From TrEMBL:
Pfam families the UniProt entry points to: ADH_N, ADH_zinc_N
E.C. no: 1.1.1.-
Xref: PROSITE patterns: ADH_ZINC (PS00059)
Assigned keywords, A-Z: Metal-binding, Oxidoreductase, Zinc
Domain Enoyl reductase (ER): 8-385
UniProt KW Lipoprotein keyword: no
Stretches of the chain forming a coiled coil according to its record: none
Stated family: Belongs to the zinc-containing alcohol dehydrogenase family.
Listed InterPro entries: ADH-like_C (IPR013149), ADH-like_N (IPR013154), ADH_Zn_CS (IPR002328), ER (IPR020843), GroES-like_sf (IPR011032), NAD(P)-bd_dom_sf (IPR036291)
PANTHER family, sorted: DEHYDROGENASE, ZINC-CONTAINING, PUTATIVE (AFU_ORTHOLOGUE AFUA_2G02810)-RELATED, ZINC-TYPE ALCOHOL DEHYDROGENASE-LIKE
The name this protein goes by in its record: Zinc-dependent alcohol dehydrogenase
Length: 389
């Protein structure tokens, strides 16, 4: 089959690889009909999260069930499904507590070159490096989906692929940001990052009847898109965090936002890029956006960290966290927890997801897709790929 392989930093190739096969009774093989590039993929692309062995990328995908393992009774060949991005068993302590992104049956623990523990057992993701379980992803014609009796959701016939594709990740992720923030009707949310995740957080805040939705970004075209799609108030991050925080305070009677959502993530330092050849070598990325969130939130407010950070860091704003009594939550979004409710919103027409798509490409142009999405060229917001073109 054809697939997008990562072969090193900034090296994504359109290749021919073996078709996936059923390896466990709870597997299905999915014929992928639509797949997307996520901001999270850029952390692998940049080398910030290293991957040495070539691996099929992609965790935002949907398709038609091609083959069903003996233990999967809720799906049959021909069903059209969307697949939540965490690989999760459905039975372990964490899955039972609605945090499938921590599933302990999807990823072993990982140790660094000197033997120290880097990540604890748990947290497998599709197409997201050997550190996250080493599962081949869905930027391909076919993908093996483990624990398929727990993750995949059947899509109503009247909804198109593009209408539901973002239920795999970015819509549940954006919703997670407001839900972790316990956003109440009338409250103000400030979202840092007007990428796909930030825009989905804004759409989610509107669904929760937010009073004011503010979005911050360093790129004007992204802010324009966010304003056009959600009617949010926009702030351009030009000269630094100080001006942004001041403007958010002006909009919130000097107190700060009730909820801040970090939808940017770490920037790999040059150092990380140089060392990315090692299997495991995380170092601190930039935490300036996280610091701005902690400054822009009101005392006793909520900060949801959706942006991805590596496991080691420095400069964590512990002083603000403590002094202001901030309620902080972060991590992989529990997509399984929200997907059915959010699919209902899409089916009822309460929210539109496909309006963020700016580029539709054949999978054969995957390298170009990564390049423009990474460099934020050609007014790119979201790239969707057809694996059969
Ligand atoms: P993206 O790269 O398209 O968007 C990031 C946006 O942040 C860009 O528009 C960029 O211009 C903006 N930005 C950069 N510096 C900024 C600053 N100082 N202030 C404000 N904005 C700034 O990516 P995306 O797809 O929207 O994803 C965003 C983050 O969310 C990534 O880190 C991704 O890994 C993460 N993510 C997390 C989960 C989860 O489960 N927690 C799921 C999906 C994505
Ligand atoms: Zn993603
Ligand atoms: Zn589990």
């Amino acid at each position: 089959m054809k697939a997008a392989l990562i072969k090193g930093p900034r090296n994504i190739s359109y290749d021919t690889v073996d078709d996936p096969t059923i390896q466990d009774g709870r597997d299905i093989i999915l014929k992928v009909t639509a797949t997307a590039i996520c901001g999270s993929d850029l952390h692998l692309y940049s080398g910030g999260i290293p991957q040495v062995r070539p691996m099929v990328m992609g965790h935002e995908f949907m398709g038609i069930v091609e083959e069903v393992g003996k233990g999967v009774n809720n799906l049959k060949r021909g069903d059209r499904v969307v697949v939540p991005f965490p690989v999760a068993c459905g039975h372990c302590f964490f899955c039972q507590h609605d945090v499938p992104g921590n599933c302990e049956n999807s990823n072993p623990e990982h140790y660094g070159p000197e033997g120290g523990l880097v990540t604890e057992k748990g947290g497998g993701l599709f197409g997201y490096s050997d550190l996250y379980g080493g599962y081949d992803g869905g930027q391909a014609q076919y993908v093996r989906v483990p624990y398929a009796d727990y993750g995949p959701r059947i899509v109503p016939e009247n909804l198109t692929d593009e209408q539901v594709l973002f239920l795999t990740d970015i819509f549940p992720t954006g919703y997670t940001g407001v839900d972790w923030g316990e956003l109440k009707p009338g409250q103000t949310v400030a979202i840092f990052g007007a990428g796909p995740v930030g825009i989905m957080a804004a759409k989610s805040a509107i669904l929760r009847d937010a009073g004011k939705v503010i979005i911050v970004d360093t790129l004007q075209y992204r802010l324009d898109k966010a304003a056009q799609l959600t009617g949010c108030h926009t702030i351009l991050w030009e000269d630094g965090a100080k001006d942004v925080v001041a403007e958010i305070r002006d909009l919130t009677e000097g107190r700060g936002a009730d909820v801040c959502i970090e939808a940017v993530g770490f920037e790999p330092s040059r150092n990380i890029l140089e060392k990315a050849k090692a299997v495991i070598n995380f170092e601190a990325g930039s935490v300036k956006v996280l610091e701005a969130c902690m400054s822009a939130v009101r005392r006793s407010g909520y900060v949801s960290v959706l942006g991805v950070y590596p496991t080691t860091y420095d400069n964590f704003p512990i002083g603000q966290f403590f002094d202001k009594g901030i309620i902080l939550r972060g991590g992989q979004a529990p997509a399984h927890k929200y997907i059915d409710m959010l699919m209902g919103y899409v089916a009822e027409g309460k929210v539109k997801l496909d309006d963020i798509i700016t580029h539709r490409l054949p999978l054969s142009q995957i390298a170009h897709g990564y390049e423009i999405f990474n460099k934020k060229e050609d007014d790119c917001v979201k790239v969707v790929l057809d694996p059969w073109k």
